Each structure stands twice: as C-alpha cells, then as structure tokens.
Amino acid sequence: MPFDHKLYQSIIDEFTVSSDELKKIAANFRQDLRIGLRDSSQSDSRMLKSYVGLPTGAERGEYLALDFGGTNVRVLKIQLRGSGRFEVLKRVGRPLIVPGEYDHIGANSSAEEMFDFIAELVDEALDGDHEKQYLLGHTFSFPSMQTNLYNARLITWTKEFATPGVEGKIVNDLLSQALERRGVKNVDPVATINDTVAVLLSAAYQRGSTYIGSIYATGHNTCYLEPYNDSDDEPMIINLECGRFSKLTPNRFDKLLDEKSEKPGEQRLEKMVSGRYMGELFSMAVAELLGESEKSFNFTSIDMSNIIMDESISRENVKSVVKDRTNVELETKDCERLQTVASKIVERSARLVTSTFVGIIWQLAGDEDIKRQHIAIDGSVYEKMPLTKENINIALKELLGDDAKLIDTVLDNGGSGLGAAIAAAMSQD
Ligand code: BGC
User: Which of 72, 74, 194 to mutate to test the pocket of ligand 1 (most atoms within 8 A of CB)?
Assistant: First the structure.
C-alpha cells in the first residue's frame, strides 16, 4: 500500500523550520548566552568555563592525547612543532562496547572497568616505554564542571552513556587511579577539555580568526572564546553545552524520542540535530508511514545518508536499506518520499545548528560589525551527511544577509586529539 499522502505531508511540515522561526531561535539563543554569562543557572546552555584561552600556535613538545568522546576511545602520541605544525607519532583506539563481547558504557558496567580499559589503551600507546615522562591531555566529551584545567567533574552522562560511578567524579582522578593500578607511572594527566574546546584549540593553533568550535556528530555541542570585554577577566573558552538548549518547538517525534531516551527532558537540541538521534527520528517517521507506529526500526544516520544519496532511477539503494530494516518492499515513488523525509530531518538539523552559531556570532560582535571568521567543526554529520553544508550556508544567508560572506565553516578533522595535546602544552604556561 502506498503511503498516505496527507500523513506524508504532515511529517514534512513537522520537520520544516521557516525563516522566521530560525531568526527567533537565533535571537533566543543569543539572549540565553547573555543571561548565562551573568548567571549560568538561568540559561539553558550550561556555559561551562574551560580555564583555557586560545593557543599562540608556538606550542611545542611531545604529548599524549586521550580522546574519549563517544563509543570509540583513542590515544595518540603527538609532537607539537610550533608554527601551527604537528605530527601524530602513534595512534591506538578501541570501542568501549562490542555487542556480545563487552560493554563499558551500559548500566551494568563500572567506572573502574571503564577506566582500566582506557588505561590499557594509554599503555598500548606507550609501546612499552615506562621511563620517559609524558603529560597527557584528555578530551572528555561530556558536560563537566571545572575550577581549573585539570579537575573536570562529570555533571551527567549524555549520548545514552550509563556507566555508574562516574557522574560527580573528577574524571582525571579516575584515570590516574587506573594508570596506577596498571603500574603506569610515567603519564601525568594534566588537562581535561571538552571536544568542542579541543576543536577550537586545534583550529586556532593551525589558522587564525577562529573563535567558535563545534562538534556535529553522534552528539552536538559548541564552544566559543568569550572575550569578557566588559571586565578585567582574561578571554576564556566557554563550553556552552548547548545540546541542552530547549527554546525550540519539538514535534511529536521529538517528544516521543525524548520520552523514550535515557534522560528525558535533557539535551533537547541535541536530540533534534545529532547523528545519534536523527536515525531514530527517521525510524519513527517511517514506522508511521508504514502504519506500524508501534514498531521500532533501527535506521541509523548512515542509512539516512545512503538513502538521500541514491540517485538511481528505481531507487535500488533506498529499497534495499528499507527492506533490511523493515522487511517491507517499497514502490519507487515511496522511496522518493522517504528520501524527502530524510532530507527534511537533515535540513532541520543543519538549520537549528546554524541558528545557534549565529546567536554566538551576534554575541561576539556586540554593537560592532561582525568580524570575518571561520567556525571550526568536527564530526561525521558535518563531514559526511549529504545536504548538511549546503543547508548551513543557506541558513547563514537567511540569518545574516550580506554578512554571511564573512563567515565560513571549516572541517577540523581530528581536532579532538590535537586539541588535547595543545591543552597539555598550555597547562605548563
Ligand atoms: C556532550 C558534549 C559534547 C557533545 C559532542 C554532548 O552529548 O554533552 O559535552 O561536546 O556531545 O560530543
């Protein structure tokens, strides 16, 4: 049975964000920043201080970088050579979960097991060298409260992580204890930063004119360099944790997804835009169109990307992805409709993310003209999801008019690792 046309149209409408709405969201976001700078408990975004500014580009030395951002943990040995140059000397990585084998992120895992697993990886990166002393920078991509560059304390897990015993703890203490249990005495964790901060440090190290760093991947979040123009405070990067921003209009799919999630009511923007959740939103829309709302199909954002990219006459790829996930054989016309649904979800995501960038750009400019600048972004959605960059550019134009030409977004691939090494170097200043 072909899709019900009215239902299809209503789904498209629900994922459409008009220009007016976009402007309202950007203005609300800016307002939220202003309020948050005075009192972060009053804003949606957490506005967490990172205790680090921008690097000079001259940082040097050999450092270990731990990139703990999602299910894949990586440890890198990085040589900073100054003048924005660097070399990755060693890279090891492993997933925190292999279904059927082990799981360090579920509710039945433990903090000790998780950090022992990470300490093992750090040890692997050392290649048996237990003599040379290393400073370690840690990119830890979850909301953490800090009072200095070292002591990031996990406020709450996001991205459906549920490992008990880490929330409320200083993550580098857990890491140091695990390194001690393993007998690794030559590694000193000195800095913890959010992955958005890592991306900004990495981009600023390599090129100038970058004040905003963002992750657009499994999760979503942005940071920026707050100049503190009205006070004597030194400029400092603020990790917004704007995945929590909630002055938005969630549709019925967003509401349902939120109710079913690990942390209902939290991370409302992230649940509308990030890779971890876009596949779920799409799955719910497909289930409705197939008249099987009660079923949960596990479409991923990679499926969505494959679906959107299929330009074949008979939409063979769409048919096969849908058959794999739902066991239903679709007609070509309905495949095209599903492509539009997937595209709309991606378009909405890019538009919402851009409105937050523009809120920050307005905040940075204050009463002055907007400065020419890059926005550094890392993450699979930005890098690989079709339609994302185009929609970011369209939304920038809609919101900024001619000033949009002053802004470009740049991919900062691998910034999480490099940023951690830079933070380790900066901890010595
Ligand atoms: C976390 C942020 C992180 C983002 C991207 C969010 O779920 O709360 O700290 O920057 O994911 O990894």
Answer: 194
